[in-house]
Amino acid sequence: MGNLVKVANVADIAEGTGKPFEVEGTTVAVFNVGGKFYAINNTCLHRGGPLGEGDLDGNIVTCPWHGWFYDVTTGCYMEDESKRVACYPVKVEGDAVLVEI
């Protein structure tokens, strides 16, 4: 099991948005979906776009570069669920959002 690393405070990631963070050498995108937090690898499988900068609609994030879209709760690419980005466990302790790599 990896280390839990604080990436933000709950208030830093508004509901319906995401942000990229560096965690132990890996860039992860952390999303707030209805007050619950999810983390996936920040790099789109298509051309490496920054998923944490994409638009979030419900639990689906759209890559800002070329429009590929992923379920942030599973990491699945919605056009072909056999393709996915890595998902990372998220824990909220008090006001801290922690990600495990």
Describe, in plain words, how this protein is organized in 3D.
With 101 residues, the chain is an all-beta fold. It has a single domain, classed as Rieske [2Fe-2S] iron-sulphur domain (Rieske Iron-sulfur Protein). It is 0% helix and 52% strand. It has a 4-stranded antiparallel β-sheet, with no helix packed on it. Strands 1-12-11 form a 3-stranded antiparallel β-sheet, with no helix packed on it. A 3-stranded antiparallel β-sheet has the order 5-6-7, with no helix packed on it. A hairpin with a 2-residue loop joins strand 3 and strand 4.
At the fold tier of CATH, the topology name is Rieske Iron-sulfur Protein
| Class inferred from helices and paired strands | mainly beta
Task: Determine the strand fraction and express it as a percent band.
Answer: over 45%
**Largest sheet composition:** 4 strands, antiparallel
Beta strand count: 12
CATH C-level: Mainly Beta
Q: How many distinct helices?
A: 0
Considering DSSP H and I runs of 4 or more, what fraction of the residues is helical? Answer: under 10%
Mean residue pLDDT: 96
Annotated CATH architecture: 3-layer Sandwich
The domain tally reads: 1
How does the SSE layout of this entry go?
Layout (H helix, E strand, L loop, with lengths): L3 E6 L8 E6 L2 E8 L2 E6 L13 E3 L2 E3 L6 E3 L4 E2 L2 E5 L2 E2 L1 E4 L2 E5 L1
Antiparallel strand pairs: 1-12, 2-3, 3-4, 4-10, 5-6, 6-7, 8-9, 11-12
